[in-house]
Amino acid sequence: MPRTALATAALLLAATLSQAQTPAAPAAAASAPAAARPPVDPTAPKPFLEVIRGAKEQPGLFPIWRKDDKVWIEIPKEALNKPFLFSVNAANSIGERGLYASEMLGDDLAEWRRVGNHVQLIALNMKFRADNDIARLAVAQAFSPSLIAGGPMASAEHPDRKSVLVDASGFLLGDIPGLSTRLEQVYRLPYAPDRGNSFIEATRADAQLTTLTARMHFATPRIPAPPLVPAPVPVPTPPQATPDPRSMFFSLVYNFRALPEAPAAVRMADPRLGHFAESYTNLSDDLKVNPRVHLIARWRLEKKDPAAALSEPVQPIVYWLDKNIPAKYRESVKAGVLEWNKAFEKIGFKDAVVAKQQPDDADWDNMDAGHASIRWFTGADVGFAQGPSTRDPRTGEILDADIRMSDVFGRGSRRLASDDVLGLHSHEPASSVSAWGSDRSQQLLAEQSCSYAAEQGRELGFALDLLALRDGMDMNGPEAEALAQAVIKDTIMHEVGHTLGLKHNFKASTTVTQAQLRDKAWTEAHGISNSVMDYNAYNLPLKGEARATLTNTTLGAYDYWAIEYAYKTFPAGQEAAELARIAARSTEPQLAFGDDFDQGVGGPYDGFDPRANQFDLGDDPLAYAKRRLKLSQELWDRVQARPAAVGDDPLRNRRSIAAAFRQLDMSATTVSKYVGGLLAERVVPGVTTGPAFKPVDNAQQREALRFIASGLLASDSFRFKPEFLVTQTLDYNEWERGLPMSIPDGVAALQGRVLDRLMSPATARRLIEQSAYLPESQRKAAVSLGEVYGTLQGAIFSELKTGADIDRMRRSLQREYVRRLQAQLNRAANGAAVYADAFSMARWHATQLARDLRAASAKPGLSIETRAHLAETLDLLDSMLKATLTRS
């Protein structure tokens, strides 16, 4: 058939079919033209009811719809552009290097926004705020919010409710908390979320909270081969705790929580007490010198009967004890929680804090934002506890808290150290880097950093070793178990204090006298410190002394004071005056306060007040450091006399010796703070009087220097019997647990810590400047930088005058001293960090040392090792002194 005939036949067939399928038009409309149908938009969302057909609803703040493996979140129209609290917690993790279960990862004030057929989850910018509309408009124009997640609507509007659906997997299976950054920080490998093998594993919803748990798979395509030549900087190993280091799973709990309809009353922070704060910049007033605002973090606590002297709260602070806490420790954990009721009763609240046990058959996870909890977790290299919280950024009101506590005490009470699992090194929480969140989120993560449980576990090991060898305490007996239970209560008190809004207080232990610490009746009634928020050491007696209470057992005076300031209620119009009255008590000796920055966090904030320390005890930290050396030496003597027993761990003695070195590491920091130290008081201009800074007494500075020279830098402090050292074996089943024990290496690390502190630019600066704080008549008697260098150099190189041989430990110490002298003479590296006076003082002592080395090298009878060491050191000094100086 010709082409034209085929075309004509096709047209006739189409017209016939069209007429057959189209109903006849009414007669009245026969002459009207047919209306054109709008084309179907293939990108338009499907009807709401069609999407959820066959799905099951979980009603709540944001209803959840589930069908097979599909999960949708329903967003009501009235919820758009309305703030709520969005938070992420890690219920499951990988168990090593700071990546552990039960972690609160951060939160943001967030809201849903709709842009056409697209929905965004937006983190609001709470760093900058304003109180009036004009300033608020300027702030909104100046500072951007952030996108948490976004995606197309999964449905058109509901025909009645006008709500829309979003695909939960599309929103939540990305890397919202920035775990890929943390993994890269730890392993230096490019891990990324694998959406194809991730899924929503659990959901819950109620009127105030919607929670979805995502099972997230992170992977890297390959593990690179190790370099052929060792890298100059050690490269971290791939994951050790997973079956395949390329693959790992996390369970992330995403919480959408309604904010309180009525914001809580705010309370301003006072620097004389230590409360966590919700901090922001208020740009309403351009005349304020510092526009920063600090609202203390606290739970909403209101009396049922405001007129009663003692009343139950409208809503108590409830902590759920997770079902994973071992049954034998639950009562100690509960006791640590309820101890805080003593402080609340003082200010009129009965049973303000409640502890409830999660049933063992419970099917809900208290990592959601609706349950404050205490959870027990394990890890390959773990030993710490944390007490973080989430709060309403508008007011500082604490809304949720999840304390996580590792099993270090269960293992520690039987002397199983963290290196007994997979042979890994101990790590603290890796919360310093996160790709998610504003400075506020970073601040909340920083607040989680608390190594008290880790250090307490190590302190417990030292105490049990000493008591077992001195008094015959059975490591697995009831006395050791009771001590472990007491330490659990102490640690829980500390972490609950954090979740009530309290910072560390590293001065509290120095407000108890030495006499009180030795009084058993006093310590049983009052504890061994004036705050559970300090890192409190064990009250171990010296050999021959009577034993008082070993651990902290109850709240101290500071804890009562801090709770009073944060939570006491006042009659209308009286709050400001009453808070001022409470804060004015800061000058009372028992209420001394110093936080992490007072203690020292590194860099320029190295901690210069010797009263602010971790794990010191009593009103004389220097005296406590001396006791620590005696206790360590006693343990070393007893360990060397301890006979081996069948079934002993091969590294048992090594751990005991290392525990004593850890004691001295902490003492080294404490004692070194005295030299060039300043006593700091928290002066508030116009409110408090007296000096903000005062140099440490000259006699104490010189006493600290003498102890350093004669104790910590003396080889005689670290003598071990050769017949003991040769018997210390390896673990031949697990070679990765270490090579033969090296006492000189342990000594070198300890002494290096002392030199780092005493020869630092910050210490030099304080020694040079401290005379400016003294009256003219006292300046000549002040400890000078020259005196400190002269004392150190004389003690470290004492053999140059006596003509004695120099043993290995002393040679190592001398090299470390000269290395630091060399660093001080390198102006190109130090720049303005070192004063010219410090540079000239270092050069002067280097010149004097070179002269003494030449004289000593000429003395007869020296060993070849000593001669070689003297020649090498002299050559290094000569090279340093001949180097071209950069004059400025």
From TrEMBL:
Q: What GO MF annotations does this protein's record show? A: metallopeptidase activity
According to the record, the segments passing through the membrane are: none
Task: From the UniProt annotation, give the residues forming the signal peptide.
Answer: 1-20
Give the matching InterPro entries. DUF5117, DUF5118, EcxA_zinc-bd, MetalloPept_cat_dom_sf, Zn_MMP-like_bac
State whether keyword Cell wall biogenesis/degradation applies: no
Reply yes or no: does the keyword Kinase apply: no
Q: Which domain of life is it from?
A: Bacteria
Give residue ranges for domain EcxA zinc-binding: 478-801
Occurrences of domain DUF5118 (ranges): 45-88
Q: Which keywords has UniProt assigned to this entry?
A: Hydrolase, Metalloprotease, Protease, Signal
Q: Which residues form the DUF5117 domain?
A: 103-304
Q: Which PANTHER family match?
A: PEPTIDASE M1A AND M12B, ZINC DEPENDENT METALLOPROTEASE DOMAIN LIPOPROTEIN
Which named protein is this? Answer: Zinc-dependent metalloprotease
